[in-house]
Amino acid sequence: MDIDALLGYIAASLTTFSFLPQLIRVALTRKTEDISRNMYILLNIGVFLWFVYGFRKNDYPIMIANLITLIFCITILYFKLNEKKDIE
User: What is the pLDDT of residue 74?
Assistant: First the structure.
């Protein structure tokens, strides 16, 4: 494996798994009030388009990284959209 491929795999891994702590926190606490809904909507669209780009280029690292990221981000957005608001 050449240095460029190695850098690509490391970058893809870090950016993909950077969402995991947020996902775990949201799943455990069910709290998303500090998360921007619109940001996650745009992020999901962008990540999906990166996946499509990777698919069209037949670039498996881009496809895999963005598919995993999309799963994480869709899950976080799901929690955000279904958060129960406390009414006092």
Answer: 97
Q: Mean pLDDT, to the nearest integer, of 40-52? A: 97
Six-digit token pair at 37? 């809904």
Distance CA 69, CA 51 (A): 10
Position 86 pLDDT exceeds 70: no
Check whether domain 3-81 has CATH 3.30.565.10, yes or no: no
Query: Residue 28 and residue 50: Cα distance in Å, rounded?
Result: 29
Domain positions in the chain are 3-81
**Mean per-residue pLDDT, 50-74:** 95
